[in-house]
Amino acid sequence: MTNKPEKVPPIASSSDCFNITPESRHPDRIISRLRLFDGFGNPITNPKLLFRDCEVVGFFFATIWHPQKEQFHNDVLDFSQRHPHRFKCIYVSIDSKKQDFELATKEKAWVHMAWDDGSNLENEEQETEPPSTDFITPDETTLLGQIFAGSLSMESDPRPISRVSLVQQLNVLSVPTLSTYHLQKGTWLDSNVRASLFETKEQRDRAWETWQKSERLEMSWADIFQTMRWSIFLLIAGIIYTILVKFDDSYNIVHLTEYFMNPGSRTGFSTQEEAIPSIPKAPAHYAEF
Known about the structure:
Layout: E1 36-37, H1 47-50, E2 56-62, H2 69-82, E3 87-93, H3 98-105, E4 111-113, H4 141-149, H5 163-169, E5 177-182, E6 187-188, H6 201-212, H7 221-227, H8 229-247, H9 253-261
Pfam family, one: Thioredoxin_8
Domain Thioredoxin-like fold: 55-119
Protein name: Thioredoxin-like fold domain-containing protein
């Protein structure tokens, strides 16, 4: 009789394993409504302890399949590891498949929101019972507005926020992107922070100094050039082309196309040397003998 190998359990993602006591609940209106897990799949049952020294919370909206995700992921992870207590990153998965979600969250330095919160429409085979936790849906816009404004208490409606509700409320336009929240003051700072503003160590240091002061990032001229460098290059090339055509029509793209496609009949150019008129010969003189 052979023993079958034990199946490795996937990373936990069920919201049913939470038992957050009132003493462990974080007082913030947003953090108190999140169902979070660490990189090893353990539920965060004491968010008050986890965010005890935290000043700024970063909500990182991303997917594992995005072509630009790798560098931005690494930059955000580096930022989280450099500020492990004062900055907490929450990974908000936009993945459509659970295996992609697990790849993005397993053994990472950030915590992540629960998977089974009703955000995914795709029906996947589940070995366990469907989650009984009722999450706030994106359709409840009035309720979400009250939560973000701080006018709805946990006693009135204790339901947690789902990933898709957070995406809608923060108006996330594309991924990957980062939204920052000053936890001590309870104010949203930046939304839709792009990778181009987080690429270098100097940019990340400047971002941290700005967020610590509860201020928003402002794009410098260097950031603008870095973001729009290809647009600027095409604009300069277009201006140069316009000037050349104005002074010499042979640079016109139509003429250049004709030249390369059919050199024998090109316009504005000559393929053969112009004929040089020959000097008329003097009439021959014959001598009579």
